[in-house]
Amino acid sequence: MPKNLQDTTTLHNGVKMPWFGLGVFKVKEGSEVVDSVKAALKHGYKSIDTAAVYKNEEGVGQALKEAGVAREELFITTKVWNSDQGYESTLQAFETSMGKLGLDYLDLYLIHWPVAGKYKETWKALEKLYKDGRVRAIGVSNFHIHHLKDLMADAEIKPMVNQVEYHPHLAQTELLEFCKAEGIQMEAWSPLKQGVLLTEPTIVEIAKKHDKSPAQIILRWDLQNGVVTIPKSIKEHRIIENADIFDFELSSEDMGRLNSLNKDDRIGADPDNFDF
What we know:
Layout: E1 8-10, E2 16-18, E3 22-23, H1 31-42, E4 47-49, H2 57-67, E5 75-80, H3 87-101, E6 106-111, H4 119-131, E7 135-141, H5 145-154, E8 161-165, H6 173-182, E9 185-189, H7 201-210, H8 214-224, E10 228-229, H9 236-242, H10 252-259
């Protein structure tokens, strides 16, 4: 188990990725995202997750520059959006993102959604970026098992990461088992189900027992299930609190109770049925 905020999981290509990071989905471009990222870096976060479609890569880049943390200590993720998928257009989208972020290499580049008929060509572009040393690791987001199998049937390089909606109401057990068996690191987006889970009675009860917040219980559950997690917050005290999960452990009974909350309930789109 990770012992602190800087602890890493080793991806199947040997690259080390922090277990914990800051997501910036729905964080506004400008001072909001700059302040959020700078607060996270100030308090020991090393991993920042953005995406082209979040429209805040420039603010993330500004924060990285102003924070003054050595580049090699950081782990920066961005994603290619659906409308940019395809081989040439992905390579162009990557250059656009890098220009906004102000980086000369990226730590992790993801295909944001499995756009039918496009994601294999997109993956070829990611493989090229990886081979050219522009990206240290490549992966996917929102891929079900059948998408992964389909991609891997023709891929030269297996995805290193699959970032999906993951929380106690959507435990994705089969997908997690599949990813573990294939050596693909699973990563959780929306780990708190956009706040919905913070009042779930079982979670509140376990939180009281450990003298922790409901959010801390959920984020600890992620880590104990071997899932990288990137909660979003724009409040400094919340950014600090979210990361304060390395000084306690959930018992197997706690884990069982949390696992039993699953109801296959999504807050985001189903990767088999999205229209964007």
